[in-house]
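Lecture 7 notes. Example A: sequence first, then its structure tokens.
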Amino acid sequence: MVTDAKFRGQVKLYQVERIKGGAASATVNREVGSLKQVLTEASDCFPGFVNPLLGLKQLKLPRGGRRALTTAEVRKVMAVLRTPEERLRFGLYVLTGMRRGEGTHLRWISVDLENAVIKIEPYDDWQPKNGDARVIPICPELAQILMAAPKRGPNVLVTRKGNPFHSDNGNSLMRWMRRVYRRAGLADWEDLGVHTLRHTYCSRLAQMGIRAELRAEIVGHRTLAMQDRYTHTEIDDALQAGKQVSYA
């Protein structure tokens, strides 16, 4: 029974057995993610019911299996996006390289179009990874996407029902993203996700000649040893370069 106290443990055991049986971690994550989404919807319909899988972590994916999209693939995906909201969901990640949670928690008050930056900063119910706040440059293409996007509440990314995507840990966003990859005809669409776009953005910055250390500053990979290494001028130069990102 779903309401049984042992249910969560049974799902964890299922994950283990599926991996032993040869299933890929990404496949198991999708299967359990679908179950979690059903239970989340059930909790909305039945007062008092609590999703027993809330907070259950996904299996780690092998790093060797992650890749970046080519410029041609990015344009193929952009060509199949049908609405301003779809363009926002994809563009926000591929044109900033932000983490999934940074995007699903992002609020409009942190989007500064006048200065062309997005502020990754803590909110009352969420903290960025490692607690570090930073700014991400907004390129002209992303600025157009943001200006055209409907604003349906404080959060930038919301579902068709208007709920923030972080309400289900971004699982519905991942499912949508894979449908888009499949729609665009990418052969390995099942293995791609939001983090693919973070790799894609980092690769684009590298192609533009931005040094690895300053790329890390933009995307939030910096270590404590890096924090005092660069002058404000160097960081500003990196941000200005980031404002020129394009996949044209």
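Example B, a different protein, same format:
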Amino acid sequence: MAHPVTQNTTTLEITGISLALMKRIEERAKERGEDSGSFVREWLQESLGVATDSPKQASLEEILSPLREDFENTGMTDDELGEFISHEIKQYRTAHKTKTPVRS
């Protein structure tokens, strides 16, 4: 049943959702850094091809999620990643003859 909230939005109550489905919705929402209501609303808008009223800013969690997944798939440890990054920075600075930035 839909309940009016404002002139431009309404509330939709959905019954009959299994606990397993609700858990999956909450997991997917958490992966995207959202609450379950926002996740379902955006999913409905995307599925139905409805434009949102305003563009959504991606959360840091959403931006970093693919990077985290890729990193986990490499099998590297955090220490190995740190060493790799340090090595790449040194190579870059050597190739570009830049100095280590001064920290204040």
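Note on Example B: Strands lie at 2-4, 10-12. Residues 78-96 form the longest helix (19 residues).
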